[in-house]
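Appendix B. Chain record.
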Amino acid sequence: MPRLPPTYSDFFFNPLTEDVEELLAHFQQTDSVRYEAFSAIWREMGFSYVFTGITSMAEMKRFCRVTLATAMKYFLPPYSYQIRVGGLYLLFGFYHTQLAIPPVKIRLALKDWDQVQKFLKDSLDTGHHDVVYIYRKLVAAKAIHYAAMPHFLSFQKQRQPKREPVVAEFLGRSTAVQELVSADILEELTNIQSQYEKLKEATAEVSCQDTVTRQDFASCLKDCASEFLAWQQRTFSQGEKDGNSGDDAEKPANGESSSSRAMLLSSIKHKSYSSFQEASKSRRHRQAEMVDSSSSGAEQIQETAAAQRRRPPSLRARTWKSLGVTQEKRKPQAWLLSAPEQQEKVPAKRTNQVAPFRP
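Structure tokens predicted for this chain:
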């Protein structure tokens, strides 16, 4: 009887991923990173019973590894800060509710260590001490296994991690523009601009009208950044409100794009077929003769190349050549191989002949 494949052979389990994303979506709607809000959603959805019903301990450990890997996926970038906090709380909940003996540890790869430290530093700077407390509770319980790879590797079989699609609603918005228009940076730009104007006035060779920058550069930068942030907020809010209607609107657009692509392909084929010119009847036999002659010429070239190909000299011939032995010396000596012809042939006498029996 063939052996059945394990149920949780992949790194992620689709039903579990759907439930985890639903929990994180509810947690995102609270606009909070407190553990109290997360634990209320955890108890409401009954996530404590996710490990019940598994009788085999081997399957239990395998499923525990899958749950911890799924939670770790949302604890790392590129997700937003709130979703990463939810992933950390998931790791804490899954580790303390698992039924495996001994408990399965959380695998933290070395390549993700810098991201985790930066996350903890940001949490301390912003005053989210419960986030740091949960992480340190895991460290104190020795629940984290610092490994080289995020998943197990097996020999005799090349296994690649299954890449799950990234949830667009959980991604964090880029804060680079907001950091660019901070008060300190704008003030520094204004000071640099005023210093540049003073140096230009002090230089007599340069006219005051000649300039390579705008005098209101700081204000223009602030206006452009504010306009971009307003557009970003308006776009995201409309996308969240009209999420269902957008799916219906995409269908005719996809249909129109497929029809236009089909028309483009047909036009390209028509142009390529129309540019083809068929040869006249009087020249068709010439083309066949040219093809035959070209093929026969190729065969002749191959035959001559094969004839010119020579067999490399043997080891014996190369040894004689290196020792300087000529062709005459290579001939074998007659007296070394056989007896001389003038020697008489004398019949040999048997010495071990037995005497005949005499009564």
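Further analysis of this model is presented in Appendix C.
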